[in-house]
Design brief:
45% helix, Rossmann fold, binds nicotinamide-adenine-dinucleotide, single chain
Length: 275
């Protein structure tokens, strides 16, 4: 794909690039190729378990650790970012999710509520907390763009996705509710991208991920959307070509969300005796 510097001059913050498989990692690489400047951020624990620092060096981006459950961390991050850029931000990517109930394979009806609380805090409330921080500090430029990543389990049940489904429903709702205020008062857009199953650390934590992945791939007329193509969609939402798109949950899934059944899957259910 050719790079036309579609984001030249744009400044932002990218959350959640843990390792090369992370969706946010691909977004950061493409934003860089398209001319954007950005701060990378991740949870302090990522300094130990991830490679965010390598990406920061490679792309020459400052790295500021912040735990999304801590208001003071987000305030510090936004202050440092606006100081670094000497002004407001054009784009922010929220690419964060974690559930201990899912990771520990605790069945949904037996959810541990301490873990569930943590899931909601990290995976959903953090989006509101981040937007509130950007709002209070008036850190977003007019016609700026805030994007969160989500999954179709917010609309349809996928049993092994557990409480992350509930967290994603809340995340998508926050995009609509906060998106109204950001649009009305600051001319800033807020959207979520509902991405195909993607082989990443968070994705792999979901029970039966391979079956999930293969099923979606067979259902979707275009096949599963890759992390690289998700990065392309993110860039389009950070660009000036999507300035009137806001408060949307945008499916980026090769057509999965609107397919009833595919011929590939039909074939696997055929009973030759009945034909
Ligand atoms: N992989 C998939 O199949 C898939 C599909 C649809 C949507 N998504 C969403 O995409 C986003 C990115 O996930 P990914 O698949 O790239 O996996 P990933 O594991 O690479 O990214 C998740 C990130 O969340 C960060 N994080 C966790 N707790 C945090 C905290 N307290 N503070 C700050 N950061 C924290 C992790 O360090 C990591 O960088 C998530 O919102 C995920 O739910 C993933």
């Amino acid at each position: 794909m050719s790079h036309n510097q579609i984001l030249k001059g744009k400044k932002g913050i990218i959350f959640g690039a843990l390792n090369e498989a992370s969706i946010a990692w691909k977004v950061a690489e493409l934003c860089h190729a398209e001319g954007a400047e950005f701060i990378l951020t991740n949870a302090p624990v990522a300094a130990r378990v991830g490679q965010t620092d390598e990406l920061a060096k490679k792309l020459n981006a400052p790295l500021i650790y912040a735990d999304v459950t801590k208001m003071e961390d987000l305030e510090n991050l936004v202050d440092e970012a606006t100081k670094h850029f000497n002004g407001q931000l054009d784009f922010v990517l929220h690419s964060v999710g974690m559930s201990l109930n899912v990771r520990k394979k605790i069945p949904y009806p037996e959810a541990n509520y301490e873990y569930m609380h943590q899931t909601m805090d990290i995976s959903a409330m953090s989006f509101h907390r981040l937007m509130q921080t950007l709002w209070k500090k008036d850190a977003m430029k007019e016609w700026g763009s805030i994007v969160g990543l989500t999954y179709i389990a917010a609309q349809r049940t996928f049993p092994d996705y557990g409480e992350m489904a509930d967290a994603k429903s809340l995340l998508e709702s926050f995009a609509r509710s906060f998106g109204y205020h950001f649009g009305k008062n600051k001319k800033v857009r807020v959207n979520t991208i509902s991405q195909s199953p993607t082989k990443t650390t968070a994705g792999g934590g979901v029970g039966g991920f391979d079956a999930f992945y293969n099923y979606a791939n067979k259902m979707s007329p275009l096949g599963n959307a890759s992390a690289e193509s998700c990065a392309e969609y993110c860039v389009s939402l950070f660009s000036d070509y999507t300035r009137m798109v806001t408060m949307q949950n945008l499916f980026h899934d090769g057509g999965f969300s609107y397919t009833g059944i595919s011929t590939d899957l039909m074939d696997s259910f055929r009973d030759p005796a009945a034909e």
